[in-house]
Amino acid sequence: MADPYDLIVIGTGAAATTIAERCRKSGWRIAIVDRRPYGGTCMLRGCDPKKLLWSVAATVDQARRFVPDGFAAKDIALSWPELIRFKRAFLKDLPQEVERRLRQAGIDTLHGRAHFVDGHKIAVNGHSIEGRHIAIASGSRPMPLPISGAEHLLTSDDFLDLDQLPESIVFVGGGYVSFEFAHIAARAGAKVTILHADDRPLAQFDQGLVARLLDKTRRLGIEIRLNSPVVGVETCDGGVRVWAKSGGAIRPCEAAVAVHGAGRVPDIDDLDLAAGGVARDRHRLRLNEYLQSVSNKAVYAAGDSASMGPMLTPVAALDAEIVAGNLLDTGPSRQPDYNAIPSVAFTNPPLAAVGITEEQARAQNRRFRVAQADTREWYSARHLGEDTAAYKVLVEEGTNRLLGAHLIGPNAEEAINVFALAMRLDLNADQLRRFVPAYPSAGSDIGHMLG
């Protein structure tokens, strides 16, 4: 039998490849395995392809807004087949490039379903390999929904690969996936409905700004039904029928397709964790503060698989550095710091946040002041013809520390990074005011947002 690997990595996304490459540079013998094309969720099936579609949809939207003000093109439209061809061409060589890079680094690349045989052994396609350590970084998958007919729902993967855009779409759930895809689909001409179980869609964002986004979304022609939990899905002539509770009754909503947008969970169910002595609590691994399994000290997890921080690609990269450091050190000592991680819903305009919300600050009995305003009349929105823009910034009384920043409007996805950097470095509002930005730019608004 061959000597054991120093490390076996399950998954090939941002966290997995970072761990493998970091440990390989220290001379470790590494194997990495994935049952899907190399590259992971974000690169191939998540944020990167989504951003491609969003960028084109945003360009079309902006061009339409400029028609009365000097933009002379006619019949501005988003062609879904061409958009999907663009996405496929952009991504088609990436799995091979990722695998080639890993091989050139001296990492053994394997394909197939990986599952535990025991605490140190992994089987892939019937062949068993052994590792001193094992890192689980297998990404996430759509959350199982306890509703009849859930198998009739398309996943986000399916939506991103539709050859033709359906005439009508129902999105189940009011999170990132639903709102981001709904904005793209509506601008491409589809009739779109979002069904959400309670009255708080995009619950992790400031609800005042969410209300502005809901208004914008409805003005695009997207129907949003709140307090409408889905209880069943069935096929019907020409599409699907989604049944949702509303006002004490169960009502149908028919469309050509229905898409699961109700959240994601770690993709760990097919790893035979029990055989490896790896404990879990329902959808999550049981990990200590070092991202190490509490029941099998040889096993670590990172990114969506760990689900210790927000399910975001930058968090996966952060986790990977922590796991690699703990593996290479004489013992685990490093812990991830999830403070001031920005989050963005790539609607149009985007919604962005970092830190805590006003609601959370009040629940924590924090003493703070709120700086907020509608900014649609500011140059940053007016020069783009955008009619939805606002901010809310929370500043702690006494210390002037930034507790949270919440933005909606053009370039919010970029401006939020300045707030995140300031909070990460523990700069207070007075120090951030000293920042001298380029003008006019998204950053030039920041000093005016501090109150």
Short descriptors:
451 residues; alpha/beta; seven-stranded mixed sheet; five-stranded antiparallel sheet; 13 helices; 30% helix; 25% strand
Give a written overview of the molecule.
30% of the residues lie in helices and 25% in strands. It is built from 13 helices and 23 strands. The chain starts with a strand and ends in an 18-residue tail after the last helix.
What topology emerges from the helices and strands here?
Blueprint: E1 5-10, H1 14-25, E2 30-34, H2 40-45, H3 47-66, H4 80-91, H5 94-104, E3 108-111, E4 114-116, E5 121-124, E6 127-136, E7 140-142, H6 156-159, E8 168-172, H7 176-187, E9 191-195, H8 207-219, E10 223-225, E11 230-236, E12 239-246, E13 249-255, E14 257-260, E15 264-266, E16 280-281, E17 284-285, E18 299-301, H9 313-328, E19 343-345, E20 351-355, H10 358-363, E21 368-374, H11 379-382, E22 390-396, E23 402-408, H12 412-424, H13 429-433
Parallel strand pairs: 1-2, 1-6, 2-3, 6-18, 8-9, 8-14, 9-10
Antiparallel strand pairs: 4-5, 5-6, 7-15, 11-12, 12-13, 16-17, 19-20, 20-23, 21-22, 22-23
Helix pairs in contact: 1-9, 3-4, 3-7
Rg, Cα atoms, Å: 23 Å
What oligomeric state is this? single chain
Number of strands: 23
* Structural class determined from secondary elements: alpha/beta
